[in-house]
Amino acid sequence: MLNELIDYLGQPEKESGGHRYWQCPFCRDKGKDNLIYTESKNLVKCFADPDHATLVLKEINKRKPKEEKQDYKREERKKPEFNMEEGILYWCEKNEELIKDPRALAFLEKTRGIKKHTVKTLGIGFDRKNKKWVLPVLGMDGALKGFEYRPPDFKVFKYPPDNPPKCRKEPGTPSILSQIGVYIENESEVLVIIEGFLDGYIYWQFLQEKGIKGYHVVTPSNGVGTTLSSIEKEKEIFSRYKQVVIFLDNDPPGQKETEKIIKAYPDFKPMKLKCGCEDFTDHYMKCKEKKK
Q: Does 272 lie in the same domain as 137?
C-alpha cells in the first residue's frame, strides 16, 4: 500500500511514529499534511473529509490491472452523538469564564480583533483548564450541534506530537453551515458564507460597528473543503434571501472552492478582498489600522 500511495502522491511531506503524511489531493490543505497513512493498520485517512480517503484509494485502484484490484481498509466511520443538553451547559460555563477573564479577552482582541461585546453576543468561550478556545457550532435552525476548539495561541495544539492540528472538533459535530449571529425574519436579506469561525466573528463585529443590517453570516463548520457539500445540505433555505455571497480566503484552496460553488450555483455572488489580504481578519486588523 505504501508504495502505491507514493506512486500516486509522491514522497510523503513528513513521517512520524509509523505515520506518513501528504497533502490531500482533493481538499488541498494549506498544511500539506491532511492525508495520513498508518502503516500498522494499513489505513488511509483524510482529516478534513473521510470520503477523500475513499477517493484516493479509488484512484490508486484505477491504475492497477483488473486482476490486481482490491479493497483496502479505510477508516471506519463511527458516528458519535453530540449531547446537546450537556453541551449547552458547557457552552454557557465557558462563555461566562471568558467574559470574566480580562487577560484572555485582551489577548483575543489584540491577536484577533474580537471584542468583549462580540464574545458575549456570539457565545465564544475559553476553557482554561483544558487550554482551548470554545467556538459553538450552531445549525441554521439555531440549535447547538457541537464545538470547534482552537489552541490557546491560535497556532497548533501541542498534543499529540505526531501531527499537531490547528483546530479540533467535539466528537459528533457535523459538517454544516454554522450560524454566526442569527437569522432575523424580514430583516436578513443577504446570506454571507465566510471561511472560518474567527473570520466570521470579526466580519459580524465589523457589520455591527458600521451599523450595517440585513446580513446573516455563516461559516462551514469543517473547513473550506466542505463548503460546497455544506451548502448542498441547506439549499432549500436559500430562497428566503435576496442574495447569497461567497466570501472565502484569497488563497488557492479558498478560490478553488469558490469556483466550484459558483459553477454549481451561478446566482451566488463571489466576494474577494482587493487589498491583497488573505482573509477578513487580516483585513480588519491591518487595513483598518492603516486608515487611522
A: yes
